[in-house]
Write the structure tokens for this entry.
Amino acid sequence: MSKDEIRERARAALATALKTDPQAISDSASQADLSEWDSVRHMNVVLALENEFGIEFADTELPGLTSLPLLVSAIERHSAA
Amino acid sequence: MAGDLTIRIIRNYTAEPMAEVIKEAAQRIGLAVQAELGAFDNVGAEIAALASDTQPPPLAIVTIDLDYFSGGLFSPKWSLAQAVNAFRAVLAAIETVPASCFVLISTFLPGFRTSLPWAPANALLGRGAAAFELNHLLRAFVAERPNRCGLLDFERIAARLGEAATVDRRFGLMMKAPFRQEFIAAAAAEVARILRCRFLPPRKVLVLDCDNTLWGGVVGEAGAENVQLDPYEYPGIAYYRFQSEVLAVAEKGVLICLCSKNDEAPVWQVLDKHPHCLLHRNHLAGYRINWGSKVANLRELGLELNLGLDSMVFVDDDPAECQMVRSQLPEVAVLQVPAKIYEYPGLVERSELFDRLSVSNEDTERVHYYQAEKGRREVQKLHVDVKSFLRDLGMKALVRPVQPADIARASQLCQRTNQFNVTSKRYTESDLARFLKDPHVRMFVLQAEDRFGALGQSGLLILRKLPDAVEVDTFLMSCRIIGRLFDQALFCEGLRLARADWQFDRVQASFVPTAKNRIVAGLWKDYGLAAVEADGCETYAGLLSELKVSFPDVIQRADHL
């Protein structure tokens, strides 16, 4: 799976979890830019991405998954393992 | 029903995900819901705020996670006695919430595991026993307040879904969000069921096919004695259980009808004679047993019972018949007998179509009214003119002020009556309980009877005192007595009784058109009221002395019925 492919699938899952339009999520989108992405919705984001990629993030990773690029690298780490 | 409904959620854990899913579940049944979340972990103060709210929301949910309740389940200072006291205080506070706000309270989840699995709940120690103790208190509390409180039974949902789909250990500890998405979806679906009962019109009729629906096999071919209905054999037991479910539904006041392609005689042979047939002829409010189209037959049954197709649920085993009804009568809810017949018992229950908030005495009696109605129609055939027909019915009417015991039925009339209903205001029991105490409101109920039997409480008149007149807030008649002049009896007698308390010589009324109440479009003109200018709704007014309506001479005034 290429990085681009991961990013697109992650973007779509993120948009669904935040109930927003994928086009509203830029390549560098972060919790700071997206008002929908609050701490409660962060649970939905985590669950949606775990479902989408069939992975489970480590508890220590969760607070750090605060942007699309950070999500993508975490997914890469898990998919490689 | 349009317009946003508000639900207040009072909680001591992260219930935001649940609030969102409740909104979506409500949307799926056509209700727009706003979910307001109370401040985090401030249950006592939030309930107090709800209690002093002058315009409380129609529904509140109080949901408490034991882990964080009463100082926290895992604190060394935690004690069962203290938790019980704290929960009693919560219930006492809920008691003070205005009756117009229905309060759903979630049950506590007992631990899925214990090292004493053989000990009865009340013999468990401290923490292990807490959920059982508190649920016991809660169930007793709710049972005493059927029209004000209900259970949101997390315990039952967890039993259905199992531990893995219920408990979110990760977000439980990290975010105080203890439930998995599956559990949240199931809990939201239960809330939607309550919303449907409270805010949407109910289904009232269950129409059943016969062969391979009420029993296994084709009676016309096998003979009545050979149909499969024996509770000691399979598959007979599946049909037997289904019939028992049908009777349980009938006891909630749902009318049962048959619609079958058959000759009548063999069907009656099963219903009257088969030793295991639970459903009998006297359970039926109507039937169409013939070789005609089921679509036409269902339409006719609707007309005969005076009920809309949207109040019907139809059960048939034949996919083609089901499809035909679905496509030609989309208002009718269709349930198909499952191919795996062991899945059949519980079909109606699982459909949730006959959920009810509560059941009144009228409900259990309903089928008798409809059977008497058939007798009346026979008499009608003998009379050429209406007046002599009506006189021959020997009608009696008792109009009396609504009393607390009448509230459940009166609210049911408000919720269900679609045709003879001038304003179609859907008052709940708590609304009516409030009116009862309001000095500017008078409510009268009509109790009717004729020579075929009691017609029950079948009309409601709500009057409101204005400075210069009396306004008809609500005027409705159950469809089973429309066209019998009972409306005139209720209206005239209600006004007469109101004049004992109030001074007025002018009456004001309105007609709010809906898709179903054309029958009363001209009522106020017929009664002698004149249309007046008003924005938005059709308003009529007139002096008492100008009314063209009087207590009908074909109806006898009764002192008691």
About this structure: Residues 361-382 of chain B form the longest helix (22 residues).
